[in-house]
Amino acid sequence: MSRQAQGWLLVVVGATLLSVSAFSTMYANYVRPGFRPALIGTGAVLVTLGLLTALRPRPGHAPRVAWLLAAPVFAIVLITPPALGSYAARRHQGPPPPAAAYQGAPATDLTLGEFIARATGTSLTGHRVRLTGFVVTSGSGWHLTRMRINCCAADALALEVTVEGAPAPPEDTWVRVTGTWIPRPASTSGTYVPPAIAATEVVTVEPPAEPYEEPL
Predict the structure, then answer these.
(1) At which of 48, 79, 110 does a domain end?
(2) 46 falls within a domain
(3) What is the CB neighbour count within 10 angstroms for residue 210?
(4) Is 210 part of any domain?
């Protein structure tokens, strides 16, 4: 690979990074929203370095393996990996990390993380809440699910709330569930059991621009 080719490859990689972070919300399928400024800055630096290298080439060649830098570009442009869904949720099931206790009456709209944290106490009793997530079906019913990430999609954890009183929409459909918390006795088997909501309304919604929840 010539130095000039290296430069144009950097331009393509940087421009692709800018396109998914500065000009769209596609980046939110892979990393937390807080990383957006860093992604934009990195894309701008790569484009600048690439132009300097391509327009002012010097003698020299890089090994052919350098073409692998183009692999992420083809993955994003040709495949466009979606946000994690039901398949990933089943592979990352488990109790969420402990969250701070909540005081006072809950808000009407809650994240799944907030609902799960409040379900360990009594602040949800008698309050109607709205939760948004995607559908994951199981043999015993279905769950409203949202993935939580600390850094990026690689460390995702599935947050799940069991929905009762309503038929399951198609899997991976994004829905907004309105209902009330179902108090249950603590599990004595040591197995984590997701909290449950008695649904009074289930409405299909568009997938959010930021599909993941962040830690509380």
Answers:
(1) 79
(2) yes
(3) 14
(4) no
**38 — pLDDT class (breaks 50, 70, 90):** confident
Q: How far apart are CA 4 and CA 61, in angstroms?
A: 9
**Residue 204 and residue 125 in contact, taking contact as beta carbons nearer than 8 Å:** no
Lowest mean pLDDT among 78-87, 145-154, 176-185: 78-87
Q: What percent of the chain has pLDDT over 70?
A: 76
Closest CA to 126 of 144, 106, 111, 109: 106
Q: How far apart are CA 187 and CA 190, in angstroms?
A: 6
> Residue 30 is part of which domain span?
3-79
CA Rg, the chain, in Å? 22
CA distance 184 to 149: 27
Query: Would residue 13 be called left, alpha or beta, if left means φ above 0 and alpha means ψ between -120 and 50 degrees?
Result: alpha
Write the pLDDT tens digit of every residue in 80-90: 666 667 766 66
150-to-38, 88, 189, 198, 213 alpha-carbon distances in Å: 16, 16, 29, 29, 9
Contact between 93 and 110 under an 8 Å Cβ cutoff? The reply is: no
> How many folded domains does the chain comprise?
2
Q: Which of 54, 79, 104 is the last residue of a domain?
A: 79
